[in-house]
Amino acid sequence: MTTLTPVRSTPTEQMKESPVSQPQPQRQRPLNVLANRSVGAKIFTIVGIASLAGVILVGLAIFNLKQASDRAHQLSDVSVVATNRLAIVHEQELHARLRMAEHVIAAPEQRPELEADMAADEADIQKAWAEYKAVTETTAESRAAIKAFEEGWAEYVDVRDNVLIPASNAGTAAAAKRGTAAYLRMTQEILPPAASALDALEAYEVEVAQTTADESTAAINRAIVTLIVALLVAAVFTIWLATRIVRMITVPLRSVSEAATGLSQFDLSRTSHAPHADEVGQMAEAFESARMMFRTAVSDGAEKADDVARAAADLLAVAEQVSAASEETAAQSQAVSAAAEQVSVNVQTVAAAAEEMGASIAGIAHNAQEAARVGAIAAEQTAGVRTAIDKLESASTQIGSAVESINAIAEQTKLLALNAAIEAARAGAAGKGFAVVATEVKDLAGETAGATTDIATRIQTIQAEVSNVSAIIGQIVGSINEVTVHQSDIASAVEQQTATTQEMTMNIAQAAAGSAEIAENVVTVATAAEQSSQAASQTRTSAQHLTSVASVMQEGYARFTL
Q1: Nearest Cα to 378, choosing from 473, 465, 472?
Q2: CATH for 287-557, among 1.10.1040.10, 1.10.10.10, 1.10.287.950, 3.40.50.720?
Q3: Burial code of 230-244, b = ≥16 C-beta within 10 A, e = fewer?
Q4: Where does residue 184 rank: exposed (0-12), middle (13-18), buried (19+ CB within 10 A)?
Q5: Whole-model pTM above 0.85?
Q6: Which residues touch 266 (CB under 8 Å, ≥6 apart)?
Q7: Of 240, 424, 493, 504, which alpha carbon lies 20 to 30 A from 367's?
């Protein structure tokens, strides 16, 4: 049987395992807004988009059919009317020309009626022509044809009214000749260009009508193609959107279903993925939270079961150790009691020795303090000697300065005596006595100079010796000071040793009292050890029962897959 070893999941790991508790960040897409809506909103979105597509399709159909209708109306209102008016103009133009021919061969009494008919035809032509010009869509070529017809017909009317009709009414040979010439000119030069222009306009209107009809047909074809394409696009988009929305609903449902199936099979490792905030996402989030709580509870329970099993095993081992230790403690209690009595005797002996050592240390401390006091006195006396020597050295220096002054005076005196002897020699017999005195003075000055030189030498020797003595005294003072410092350190150390010895003596006394108390408590320890052995036996029995219970718990939790 496999033993379940659960691992406690930290809050961070649980958040990583649960996609509902912490959804992964997604890029902002148009469908992300819809993904977090309710299921009803998703369904109504599909219906709304399909309805919108239908409205757009109907709008496109109406727009294209309106264009086709406009082209048909243009064909009816413009091209047909223009063609009809040109036909009227053409027909009335032929009638006018026929009536002019009848006028030439008609009896005189019939001519007024023919002239009236020609006037009526002319009025019909002008009316139809004006209506044609009002509805036609002209181009450069059609405007040129219109101008050519108007100019040709105006010239025809002018020739007819001013030449042909008067010549026909005159009935003379000359008039007939003029009329024949004008008629030939009219039929050969004037009417052919006008008739050609009228034919060109009729051909242009037929072409415009055909173009309008073609455009109407093309508009209808475009409407059909646009409707088909729009219908296909709307159908594809609606199907795509419906597929995405269905996946938004079914994928989380499938995930929740798989997680629920796993839960029924004791498998808690299956997670429910629901990245959206709709009803399905909320259900998946609630299920995932329940799964994680149940998983945590199972994991904690399995871990606690293992802890209980380990604790039971440890408790059993400890109970056995306590039992063995209790027996060993009872066996050693007697030996400890005897050892405690021996320790008490030894501690008392050490206490007596410590008291004797304290007395010796007190004597050492007194001697060290006395030596320090004597050293301080010697240092003070040595300092006085050094001061006197410094004064002696200063006096020797002053004596040396005085000797140098005396030596300088002796030299000057000797020089003066020499000058006096020279002057006495110059004086002759009168200066002999003075010369003797000058010589004596010179000799005395020389002796004085020699004596002062000897004194200066001796003073320098004294100064050198005084300097040596001063240096030696300085060293002595330093040594005395150092000895004094060491004596002070010794005195301090001895005082500390005295305090330590006193504390040690006190502690040894306390240890002696404690060792006696230990001896008394050993018997109590032996009794407690026997009682502990009995309690350890009972604990061992309880630990064995606890181990059995922990094994049953582990088997139950092992059925779950985390």
Answers
A1: 473
A2: 1.10.287.950
A3: beeebeeebeebbee
A4: exposed
A5: no
A6: 559, 560, 561
A7: 504
